[in-house]
Hints:
- Strands 3-2-1-4-5-6 form a six-stranded parallel sheet, with helices on both faces.
- Helix content is about 35%, strand content about 15%.
- The chain is of the alpha/beta class.
- Strand 5, helix 6 and strand 6 form a beta-alpha-beta unit.
- It has a single domain, classed as Rossmann fold (3-Layer(aba) Sandwich).
- It has seven helices and six strands; from the N terminus they run βαβααββααβαβα.
- The chain is globular.
- The structure holds flavin mononucleotide.
- Flavin mononucleotide binds next to helix 2 and helix 4.
Amino acid sequence: MNMELTVAITGASGTIYAHRTLQLLAASGVVETVNLIMSGTAAVVAQVEMGVNLKDANAAKINEWFGLDEHSKLIRYWRLDNFAAKPSSGSYKQSGMIIVPCSMGTIGSIASGAGTNLIHRAADVCLKEGRKLLLVPRETPYNAIHLENMLRLTHAGARILPASPGFYHRPKTIDDLVEHLCFRILDQFDIPHSKKSQWTGEEVSEPPA
Ligand SMILES: Cc1cc2nc3c(=O)[nH]c(=O)nc-3n(C[C@H](O)[C@H](O)[C@H](O)COP(=O)(O)O)c2cc1C
């Protein structure tokens, strides 16, 4: 139990993916610290989609939202304008960063290398230090700028894991769909979970003709 990660939530649709991912990281038993950063629009989308007020969030409010003990030290919350935060420096060692959900605005900003807020800067640091940067974009349809930015980021070392849930595990609820995608996010960092996402092939008795 000594892994440290940065997780950023941006203003794309899909706050629920961030919420579930954080809960799974908390339950994994291997993650000691999550450096959490939220964009301003992430709070707007969270209000729209989950009815939660994250404006002026603080550690206690964040812990409450994730169902953690009020004294839990798992989540270290950093303000978006705090360029002195630990994830802002390459000399601060950690395993990598997940941006979930990731807006096209944030994708574009990281692809430009401008580093104008802590999310963009922390992502830039991961790329320059060769650490894992996992982006979970959500937009539909994509335009050529979105696609080119994602290709540019892939070439720079990021991994793109689109928020496009599968159906081969026969989900019955929205939570089944969400969780399956979040399992794939954890898989990218070899973080343990219930393994329900692994395809065994046993579901198909005979190959289709
Ligand atoms: C309710 C709502 C849903 C949104 N959904 C998306 C989305 O799915 N994908 C996207 O790229 N932007 C979406 N946006 C627009 C972004 O929030 C906007 O481009 C913002 O500038 C992104 O900034 P950020 O990346 O710093 O959060 C949405 C905005 C709102 C209010």
